[in-house]
Amino acid sequence: MKEKVLAFLKEKDGYCSGEEISHKIGVTRAAIWKAIKKLQADGYEIESSTKKGYKLLLAPNIVTSSEVKEHLRTECLGQMIHYEKEIDSTNNKAKELAREGAEEGLLVVADKQTNGKGRLGRNWESPEGTGIWMSLILRPKILPQYASQITLVAGLCMCETLKAMTGLEASIKWPNDVVINGKKICGILTEMSAEMEGVNYIILGIGVNVNMTVFPEELPYASSLALEGGMEYSRKAIIDDFLERFEKEYNSYKQTPNLAGIKERYEQNCITLHKKVKLIKNAEEIIAEAIGITTDGALKVRYEDDTIEDIVSGEVSVRGLYGYV
Ligand code: BT5
User: Fold this and answer.
1) One domain, residues 136 and 247
2) How many whole angstroms separate alpha carbon 259 and alpha carbon 297?
């Protein structure tokens, strides 16, 4: 109903009366009024005048299901969207829906998270109206140990999306942060339910700082596209572009579950490589040179004594010698 009223208002370049809409859609004027109230709560600016009726003034930068789907060209990913204005965590909601049997491709999007989650129980700052907080349900037929590779595929796709949409120099900080000018713009949290012999579902949770203009003091390495690019960006256009790129790569990944097909592109975009990094495991720090990515998604490093090791994501944090990257 809400969607139908919105489509009608978008089509109409001017006022339309409650009566006209109710006639067109075939519901009462009271139902139209309710739908208008809901649209206003979603963030649409709709003028209502007793004499002239309703007029859509502004379709601001919002990420409701109908806005995201309007120009989305995917076969599966994001074709079903569960939108909430405010939620604890889109990953939690996606998990709940996956447990209830939601299909692959369902996307949970929220305008604000009250308990956004990072990895290892860390917190993810997710204020209202300015970022992309979304979680995608995937059901690939792969062994659980391959799940982290999908996160790397998603990190590469988001890096390419952000470069294409903003023209800014985005890079990947291994394994899957996207950074611009040495600051973190995007983080990914993958959670899954699996048996030994296969994955039930993967929740690919992605946070992108799009239009924030300030960050709390305790996040000196966080930034947003708006802060780095000096302008506002469309959240829904970024979501659409990402879903289209990721669907393509995810489908090829399912055919050949390793990273051979994207290794070269990943390495070209990875800012962690070819420099000295600090590897932090528990409280211990060790310096090594990052020399490559394996087709499993591990980071290949050379220690100062020339021995080489493949570091698996999740076990170790990687930092630059003098900053975050
Ligand atoms: C991540 O964790 O980078 C994964 C973040 C995933 C967030 C998405 S949003 C949609 C979905 N639903 C969720 O509940 N989560 C996912 P990690 O690498 O552990 O980084 C967390 C650390 O980054 C924190 O400890 C802070 O230091 C910092 N941080 C917190 N909020 C940030 C932000 N908005 N931007 C940049 N850094 C942030």
Assistant:
1) yes
2) 7
165 in a structural domain: yes
CB 162 within 8 A of CB 183: no
Instruction: Please indicate, yes or no, whether residues 196 and 80 belong to a single structural domain of this protein.
Output: yes
Q: Could you tell me where the DSSP H helices lie in 43-105?
A: 65-70, 90-99
Cβ atoms 197, 143 nearer than 8 A: yes
Contacts for 216 with CB less than 8 Å, ≥ 6 apart: 125
Residues spanned by the domain of 281: 276-320
Our CA dihedral for 317, 89, 155, 277, rounded to 10 degrees, sits at -10
pLDDT per position as a tens digit, 12-31: 878 999 999 999 889 999 99
pLDDT digit string, tens, across residues 261-315: 999 999 999 999 999 999 998 889 999 999 999 999 999 999 999 999 999 987 7
Please choose from 124, 162, 189, 202 the residue to mutate so as to test ligand 1's pocket, defined by most ligand atoms within 8 A of CB.
Answer: 124
Instruction: Check if 119 has its Cβ closer than 6 Å to any atom of ligand 1.
Output: yes
Residue-wise pLDDT for 181-196, tens only, equals 999 999 999 999 999 9
Retrieve residue 199's tokens: 């994955």
Q: Is 71 in the pocket of ligand 1 (CB under 6 A)?
A: no
**Based on the domain organization, do 11 and 116 belong to the same domain?**
no
Does residue 89 belong to any structural domain of this protein?
yes
pLDDT for 281 equals: 84
Residue nearest (by alpha carbon) to ligand 1 atom 36: 222
pTM: 0.93
**What are the residues facing 180 on neighbouring strands?**
170, 183
- For a pLDDT cut of 70, what percent of the chain falls above it? 100
Whether 325 maps to a domain, the answer reads no
- What is the whole-number distance in angstroms between the Cα of residue 125 and the centre of ligand 1? 7
237 and 104 housed in the same domain? yes
